[in-house]
Specification:
With 289 residues, this protein is mostly helical. The protein has 2 domains: 1-118, no CATH class; 150-289, Farnesyl Diphosphate Synthase. Helices cover 69% and strands 0% of the residues. It has 13 helices and no strands. It has helices at residues 3-12, 14-23, 29-48, 53-71, 81-91, 99-117, 124-145, 160-172, 174-180, 187-193, 203-228, 233-255, 269-281. The longest helix has 26 residues, at 203-228.
């Protein structure tokens, strides 16, 4: 196991660290840590440079170019230790069109979009594409790293659980994102209701939140049905644990009558993830709570 990748992962997300350690296919553990840690580093660097958009864009465009270089089988000099993780990760991927390749390319699209959108409102279509890239990357990584030898179900619901999680994530982080100049609400909605993206307390914004919560709930239901059809039990456990973390946030937003909070207490995260795993181990169909 690569110490740097594992240490970055453990420091950033205990849930991800133990998911990889306990559930990922044994031959792919090191790559899974690299896959998470590299993009965690990219995201953290973008956050640290948020005050300077030119620097953020230069950094993320370098990373985007390095992905293309890596897939051509080249390795330039003067890479940082974190960038070397990317090249080691790509070298481990010997299947053209693999889930890992989809993960890398789609998540890099997410990073580029975030770097470019600071201080700007975005369209409904751009918001959907943003969530689509995120959902594709996470879902394909899940199937690549956990139970990769098992066939996976086909259908339109494949990416819906992670799409729902991303919708929830954007609601949860609204206050933090607005303060940093990132607006997770469609420009068309703002124009139609005559509000600015910073008016989080307004009735119109609350209407937006309610619609997004309802959409996320519907996507989680369909995504849950999809996960129940996944053959790999380890993959189901990881998927439901991932959902549980975000469904608990939705429940809090609903209890607050769709008024967002500056912070959401995730102290029950381990309990809800354990509940998800227990439900899967007992074969509970249509898991939801």
């Amino acid at each position: 196991m690569e110490p740097l990748a594992a240490s970055i992962t453990q420091a950033a997300s205990k849930q991800t660290y133990y998911t990889i350690r306990l559930l990922v296919d044994r031959g792919r553990v090191a790559s899974a840590y690299r896959a998470y840690a590299y993009f965690r580093w990219v995201d953290d660097r973008l956050d640290a440079q948020a005050a300077s958009q030119p620097r953020s864009l230069a950094f993320v465009e370098r990373q985007q170019a390095l992905v293309e270089v890596a897939y051509r089988g080249e390795q330039p000099p003067c890479l940082s230790p974190e960038e070397r993780m990317l090249f080691d990760l790509v070298r481990s991927d010997d299947a053209p069109g693999s889930g890992l390749q989809a993960y890398i390319h789609h998540l890099m699209n997410v990073m580029v979009f975030d770097a470019r959108r600071r201080g700007q409102t975005i369209s409904q279509q751009a918001l959907a594409t943003y969530s689509g890239d995120l959902a594709t990357s996470v879902t394909e990584a899940l199937h690549y790293f956990i139970g990769h030898n098992d066939p996976t179900p086909v259908g339109t619901a494949r990416y819906l659980a992670v799409t729902a999680a991303h919708i929830t994530h954007m609601l949860r982080d609204t206050y933090e994102d607005v303060a940093a100049g990132y607006y997770n609400i469609a420009g068309e909605f703002l124009a139609a209701h005559g509000i600015s993206p910073t008016q989080v307390h307004s009735d119109a914004y609350r209407e937006w939140v309610k619609a997004r919560v309802q959409l996320a709930r519907d996507y989680f239901r369909q995504g849950s049905d999809y996960l129940c059809r996944v053959k790999s039990r380890r993959c189901r456990i990881a998927g439901f644990a991932y959902m549980a973390r975000f469904e608990s946030v939705l429940a809090t937003i609903e209890r607050d009558d769709y008024r967002l909070r500056p912070n959401y207490d995730e102290c029950k995260r381990l309990m809800t993830c354990a509940k998800a795993a227990w439900a899967v181990l007992n074969g509970a169909p249509g898991f939801a709570f």
